[in-house]
């Protein structure tokens, strides 16, 4: 199979779909890998390293999209990339379709087979291709929050760890999954006063065990959200309903009731965001202020630490990517129900129910379960 790796084009996105070490694994299995020139150069993955790994360097994305059987990316394809996809071609990347009607329409029109990293599952019921980036974004969320709590950056001038004689800042984490756990580790490490909300009692039990009772775990009700958001210095939005648009857990009234200079980091923004006032921002222009509350809503946070993130992402995507290339996409998905769960669009058909639930009224979408759609 010919595998194509275009350079990412989203704002300040320096990650790359395959690092040289991953390219070598595909080449060792007999595949041809085309990498766009300078795709990884800014994070130290030079064209020379790719050539040494067995890749062929290609000058333009057009040539890569025209020649490759499978495109391996990081971020969702931008409109001009969607238009280069075709029927019979596989796209393997993050998609986040539920909050994105434009991309969904373009992928349906392309006829391509589109596999979303974020909906591939594993036998433990978790999301193995989302997890590494959630680890990164969860850790970064506290760094970002601490930065914007500084006066010069719009915040209240609160040091999360406090100092002897002054109480630490209060961090509220809504959603105790991978992002939430990693945010909690960083916030606890800084000495902040941390509360974590989740709808899963089992998850709250696990978090209580992990942190040996040193943080507060609270069942996520409307009442708990009212109370804890009004006293927080930093709120991290970390909820997920897989594949679906994020539930809006803080509304405009909650934001008005927050302390002036407090900070929201909406990590769930890639699924549309879990605060009513959230809108996606970029690394170039990451924050805006509403009712004296700083909003940080960068949809590709791990792109900020692209070298670490590329390697972490490749560790998780490589085995599934090799299966797709070695067996062919259809057989690979039929052999592995967890990979099949990644299929979101195939041959003009939407195969992920939560996407149709979110967008079915806006777009004229045809839904079919993934296994059946693969026979179309
Ligand atoms: N902005 C960015 O750059 C990045 C964003 N993300 C996003 O972060 C979000 C969280 O991802 P993960 O932690 O991996 O998901 P996860 O599935 O590990 O955890 C989500 C948690 O939210 C909880 N939850 C669901 N509804 C809830 C509610 N109403 N109240 C409280 N908790 C609720 C679930 O029980 C679960 O424990 C996702 O939208 C993911 O796509 C992940 C990486 C990077
Ligand atoms: C998960 C995601 O949206 C990212 O890593 O950019
Ligand atoms: Mg206020």
UniProtKB/TrEMBL annotation:
Ranges for domain Alanine dehydrogenase/pyridine nucleotide transhydrogenase N-terminal: 4-137
Spell out the reaction equation it catalyses.
Answer: L-alanine + NAD(+) + H2O = pyruvate + NH4(+) + NADH + H(+)
Cross-referenced PROSITE patterns: ALADH_PNT_2
Query: Matching InterPro entries, A to Z?
Result: Ala_DH (IPR008141), Ala_DH/PNT_CS2 (IPR008143), AlaDH/PNT_N (IPR007886), AlaDH/PNT_NAD(H)-bd (IPR007698), NAD(P)-bd_dom_sf (IPR036291)
Biological process terms in GO annotation: L-alanine catabolic process
Instruction: Write the protein's name.
Output: Alanine dehydrogenase
Organism equals Glaciecola nitratireducens (strain JCM 12485 / KCTC 12276 / FR1064)
| Residues covered by the Alanine dehydrogenase/pyridine nucleotide transhydrogenase NAD(H)-binding domain | 149-297
């Amino acid at each position: 199979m010919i595998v194509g790796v275009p350079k990412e084009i989203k704002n300040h996105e320096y990650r790359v779909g395959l690092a040289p070490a991953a390219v070598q694994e595909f080449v060792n299995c007999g595949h041809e890998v085309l990498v766009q020139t300078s795709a990884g150069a800014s994070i130290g993955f030079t064209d020379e390293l790719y050539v040494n790994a067995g890749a062929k360097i290609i000058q333009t994305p057009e040539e890569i999209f025209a020649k490759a059987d499978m495109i391996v990316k990081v971020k969702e394809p931008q409109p001009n990339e969607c238009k280069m996809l075709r029927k019979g071609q596989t796209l393997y990347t993050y998609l986040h379709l539920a909050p994105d009607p434009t991309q969904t329409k373009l992928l349906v029109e392309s006829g391509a087979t589109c596999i979303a990293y974020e909906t591939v599952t594993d036998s433990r019921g978790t999301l193995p291709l989302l997890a590494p980036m959630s680890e990164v974004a969860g850790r970064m969320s506290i760094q970002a929050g601490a930065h914007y709590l500084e006066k010069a950056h719009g915040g209240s001038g609160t040091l999360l760890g406090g100092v002897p004689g002054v109480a630490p800042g209060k961090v509220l984490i809504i959603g105790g999954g991978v992002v939430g756990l990693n945010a909690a580790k960083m916030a606890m490490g800084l000495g902040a006063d941390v509360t974590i909300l989740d709808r899963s009692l089992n998850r709250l039990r696990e978090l209580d065990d992990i942190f040996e009772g040193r943080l507060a775990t609270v069942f996520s009700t409307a009442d708990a959200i009212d109370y804890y958001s009004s006293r927080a210095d930093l709120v991290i939005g970390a909820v997920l309903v897989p594949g679906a648009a994020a539930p809006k857990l803080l509304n405009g009234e909650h934001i008005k009731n927050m302390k002036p200079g407090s900070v929201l980091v909406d990590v769930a923004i890639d699924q549309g965001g879990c605060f009513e006032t959230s809108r996606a921002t970029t690394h170039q222009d990451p924050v805006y202020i509403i009712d004296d509350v700083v909003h940080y809503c960068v949809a590709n946070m791990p792109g900020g630490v692209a070298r670490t993130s590329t390697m972490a992402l490749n560790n998780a995507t490589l085995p599934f990517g090799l299966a797709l290339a070695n067996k062919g996409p259809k057989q690979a998905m039929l052999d592995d129900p967890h990979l099949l769960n990644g299929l979101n669009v195939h041959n003009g058909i939407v195969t992920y129910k939560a996407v149709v639930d979110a967008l079915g009224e806006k777009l004229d979408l045809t839904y079919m379960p993934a296994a059946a759609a693969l026979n179309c």
